[in-house]
Amino acid sequence: MDLQLAKSLIPKLINHTATAEETSAFQAFIDIANYDAMSTILDDYYAQLGTNVTHIDTNSIASNIEDRINSYEANLQGTQLKVAASHNRRYWWAAAAILLIVVGAYIATKFTTTHTEPLANVNAISVQPGTNKAVLQLDNGQQVVLDVAKDSTVKNSNGVALQIHNAALVYAQEPKAVVVSYNTLSTPKGSQYQLVLPDGSKVWLNAASSIRFPTAFTGSTRQVTLTGEAYFEVAKNAKQPFIVQANDMTVQVLGTHFNVMAYNDEAAMATTLLEGSVKVQQQGQAAMLVPGKQALVTSSTLKVQDADIEQAIAWKDGYFSFDKVTISTIMRDIARWYDVEVGFEGKLSNSRFKGGIRRSAQLSQVLKVLELSGVRFKVDGKKIIVLGD
Known about the structure:
Mean pLDDT is about 75; it is low at about 30-60 and about 75-120. The chain is globular, with a radius of gyration of 23 Å. It has helices at about 5-15, 20-30, 35-50, 60-75, 80-85, 90-110, 310-315, 325-340, 365-370; strands spanning about 130-135, 145, 150-155, 160-165, 170, 180-185, 190-195, 200-205, 210-215, 220-235, 240-245, 250-255, 255-260, 270-275, 280, 285-290, 295, 300-305, 320-325, 340-345, 355-360, 375-380, 385. It has 3 domains: about 5-115, no CATH class; about 130-310, Jelly Rolls; about 315-385, Phage tail protein beta-alpha-beta fold (3-Layer(bab) Sandwich), CATH 3.55.50.30. The chain has a 6-stranded mixed barrel with strand order 1-6-9-10-8-7. The chain is an alpha+beta fold. About 30% of the residues lie in helices and about 35% in strands.
């Protein structure tokens, strides 16, 4: 079932005129989290839509959804199940976001008189989500465009082999005697890519990011340079610490899983640790992180805080995940992933947003979710303008 058909079934479901087949198909469309409790959440929506109200508070509905998630997880027995539930929270939020899209079409129709001005025609926005694509610059200046449709083998000028397969770039593990050269892998806006370094370490590169690295790690350290954002799963090697240099922040590890966000247009850089330990340094300041912690670095400060792991790595797992963030933060993510220009008019609200949606959704779907939360847009081609007060 596609989105348009699902929308068309909402009035039937509310008026109890949907056939058994239509009801079953709609439930299958919504139930992407594969939890029976989602049907109960659906009942709550229908109950609210069936009353003589003039406004649907989608924020309170979202809070209701999270309360149910928390209750569901609290009742789970065993560490393994709890970890699995925590990992799958993003699927709940994706389901909730799609549900808001579907029900939102009916809300907008039924309560048009409650809007002081019409919503932007986000359906007219024909912008697809990002894809697996990158540009590899070799040591001799040659550039190779990488995308999911092309599998091939490339060689550096020093003979190091690079396998391009299944949207990932894999470097052969060469003998230490090889002549070292440096390559740079870059993702433009609207793209992401995976990389396997010569030591076997894995890197997921987010949109509008780049990583510079040697074709072999021959020295006392394994050092790479990052701009933008990447998730690392570093191969263990106690004799060769792995170092990520991002602007003036240095992250040093022996073997671990962590995320580094170092976009130039963000107020702070963030290193989030999932497994192992890392040392974060910046201008004479240093901190050791343990799993579940995050280091926030600005031009003058380094602060350690509890991490929201789900939010930090949602992009790598194919989701947007927001937890008490401003609309400007959300729109920066949207601009990178959908390769659109974002502008702002008027005074923006200080409201904080919580929720999530798949990164495979079209831009129009994402904007609809935000509209249902009270955000207003003006659309001009590939430029999205957020309207303030």
